Amino acid sequence: MKRHKIVLIPGDGIGPEVADEVKRILDSAGAKIEWVERYAGQAALDMGSDVMPPETLEAIEHIGVALKGPCTTPVGKGFSSVNVQLRKKLNLYAAVRPVRSLPGVSTRFENVDLVIVRENTEGLYSGIENEVTPGVVMSMKVSTEKACTRIARWAFRYATHRQRRKITVLHKANIMKLTDGLFIGCAQNIHKNEYPNIDYQELIIDAGCMKIVQDPSLFDVLLLENLYGDVISDLCAGLVGGLGVVPGANIGERKAVFEAVHGSAPDIAGKGVANPLALLMSSVMMLNHIADTREDPGAREIAHNIRKAYDKTLEDGHKTRDLGGNLGTTEFADAIIERLNKHAGIS
Ligand code: ATP
Description:
Blueprint: E1 4-9, H1 15-28, E2 33-37, H2 42-46, H3 54-63, E3 65-68, H4 82-89, E4 94-100, E5 113-119, E6 129-133, E7 136-139, H5 145-161, E8 166-171, H6 179-194, E9 199-204, H7 205-214, E10 221-224, H8 226-240, E11 249-252, E12 255-259, H9 277-293, H10 297-315, H11 329-343
Parallel strand pairs: 1-2, 1-3, 3-12, 5-10, 8-9, 8-10
Antiparallel strand pairs: 4-5, 4-11, 6-7, 11-12
The structure holds adenosine-5'-triphosphate.
């Protein structure tokens, strides 16, 4: 593998704990990465900077790839979500979140293999909220033809490249006739005019949720606007073992930030029990992205070895508490590294 500069934002809560272990595993796997550490959110505030320091944005703009831990978002007050700010400011318009069953993790369904594609820049995440009069507040849902078309095209292109057979749009266009109506209209156009060979389906989101939890094998790629994508991501995480095992990527033009679906998990922060797998899986997506965009097949090989090592670790019954095991964050990472070394013939 070539040597690559990557921005690392450790994040808040469990972020730094899981990021440390991911760095250690990548290093053991032979990934040659020069980490450029930058801060955002509460961690940046604690250091006396802005919530979103310009040097963090500049580093991602300049280097093009970042691995990011979760940043705390205050509920109902305080600064607006750093995760959302970052996606908007860098125009990382496509969130992609693969959800798959893992060996050794028993859940209600076997062989779940879904990909969530979420529009990342608008919808109810526009952040436009105001008080009309005391006791009456409103929040604006924004949909633009440009962003709806862009995410639909991205999803169809992704499905085609990954040999996926079907795209399902989940929506509520029966109620939000204009905003969700535009979203499905744009998806229909892209399907009809550019990718007629991919199966296409639309489902009202409430009925769609019921069908997903009844039989996830009915679905393949799910395409959603911002808020629905957020909610469905956690619902689908529940199908495969929870938030500790679902990775994600936020992709824009020539920029990508890889981050787990989970938040900063303040309830378990600092206890050494967080599952580092979701961020590790995000880093595997990152290595594959590097292989594609920086022409480095060595990065893909390392990604493959890490994936094999964590699959084997789970298969051997080594798990963190969220998956029903008893290993702490570091012990679980040790178990993965042991398997990486065995695979490489290092004893
Ligand atoms: P935030 O406000 O930063 O989004 P949150 O607590 O609202 O954080 P999550 O951080 O996603 O939301 O946590 C939801 C639940 O899932 C918590 O009980 C948390 O402990 C658990 N959880 C999330 N990530 C992990 C992980 N990596 N390992 C173990 N448990 C996790």
